[in-house]
Design brief:
This protein has 365 residues and is of the alpha+beta class. It contains 9 helices and 6 strands. It has a 6-stranded antiparallel β-sheet with strand order 1-2-3-4-5-6. It is found in: Cell membrane.
Length: 365
């Protein structure tokens, strides 16, 4: 069987794909403009509250926030673009003409599904290369209250680690594994839950099963005296991954970076179920653009003159929004450990794929 038999004629396929893509990205642009304006109303005051900030910082915030909004609302735009496209085709009796020419319901939807796949690929690449970096930068910028950001050299910063009753804060961490180096170290030594002393140092490195720090100074809380300790050993039993992987934010990491972090956490024997769910969702999330034409197809079939076209469009929107609710719920359950990672990411997609097929077969005639 020729693969091109799955399509309507090339002219019709291009016509439908163009309608779908134009409406999808027009809706996305409108949503971004409205939502960014509302978001800026709440954040502009915080940005300008930092001395010296002005229009340049506002534009910088827009450049970091817009990719997040695009990523979050692209699937909604695909759903609405599908419904508008199919409603117009139905209203103009173009769907009836295609079915009268011998095309099945699935053949009518093929141009939209393939266009949705193209959108999914673009969405994955955009999320992986742009959104993750914007999310990481914006999170760091908010931590300094929209002040100047330090130069990002890929190092970890402001990490806290617990060593029994003691707490260790590190300003900056470089390297991985046994080559990790610590800079700006503050160790809070406690006895029975009470602060006993504070040890500070400019630099530390891995030594044996602990960490050796140089030029250490110890502040004794009881006497209020500072002692020069020189080079001392602290944090026996604290592993390097506890510093480098103290906090893994899936939204701020690319697919490859997150997978690498999960592998390191597994090697260290630490739980990774929630992160694995987020890793799978980086694939299933963009693929929702392929599912939307199937869920919105209820608007394409049935006689427009029956007066139920609006009802069918509402049904399509309801199916799409139910999918997003189920997707967020499953991901939350995965983060809590109630669902296995693969199920949390893919169950809503597979469930609504079957629902969409059932509704399509039921409403086709």
């Amino acid at each position: 069987m020729n693969l091109f038999n799955l399509f309507p004629s090339p002219a019709v396929a291009l016509y439908m794909a163009r309608m779908f893509l134009v409406r999808t990205f027009a809706i996305l642009m409108a949503l971004v403009l409205v939502l960014q304006a509302l978001d800026l109303l709440s954040e502009s005051g915080k940005i300008l509250a930092y001395a010296g900030n002005g229009d340049a910082q506002i534009w910088r915030y827009l450049s970091l926030r817009i990719p997040q909004i695009v990523s979050n609302f692209l699937p909604f735009s695909v759903l609405l673009g599908t419904i508008l496209t199919l409603s117009q085709l139905n209203q103009n009796s173009e769907v009836i003409a295609m079915k009268a020419s011998g095309l099945s319901a699935h053949q009518v939807l093929v141009p939209l599904i393939l266009s949705g796949f193209v959108v999914a690929v673009i969405s994955f690449a955009f999320n992986d290369r742009v959104v993750t970096r914007a999310t990481a930068t914006l999170a760091q910028w908010k931590k300094v209250d929209y002040g100047p950001l330090p130069i990002d050299r890929g190092d970890r910063a402001n990490v806290w680690v617990r060593d029994g009753d003691h707490l260790i804060a590190v300003d900056q961490i470089r390297g991985r594994g046994e080559q990790v180096q610590l800079f700006g170290i503050t160790a809070y030594q406690r006895k029975g839950g009470t602060l006993d002393s504070i040890i500070t140092s400019t630099q530390g490195w891995r030594h044996g099963n602990g960490w050796r720090i140089a030029n250490a100074k110890r502040f004794d809380v009881a006497s209020g005296t500072i002692f020069n300790e020189g080079t001392v050993q602290i944090a026996g039993g604290v592993r390097p991954d506890q510093f480098t992987l103290a906090h893994v934010d899936a939204d701020s990491m690319s697919f490859g970076g997150l997978k690498e972090a999960i592998d390191e956490l597994k090697t260290a024997g630490r739980p990774t179920k929630a992160l694995e769910g987020s890793l799978w969702h980086k694939l299933s999330g963009p693929l929702s653009s392929v599912l939307m034409p199937l869920l919105g197809a209820v608007a394409a079939f049935g006689l427009a003159r029956s007066g139920k076209l609006f009802v069918r469009a509402v049904m399509g929107m309801a199916l799409g929004f139910l999918y997003f609710v189920a997707d967020n719920f499953a991901l939350a359950m995965g983060n809590l450990g109630a669902y296995p990672p693969f199920l949390a990411a893919w169950a809503p997609f597979l469930l609504f794929l079957m629902i969409g097929e059932a509704v399509l077969l039921r409403t086709e005639e």
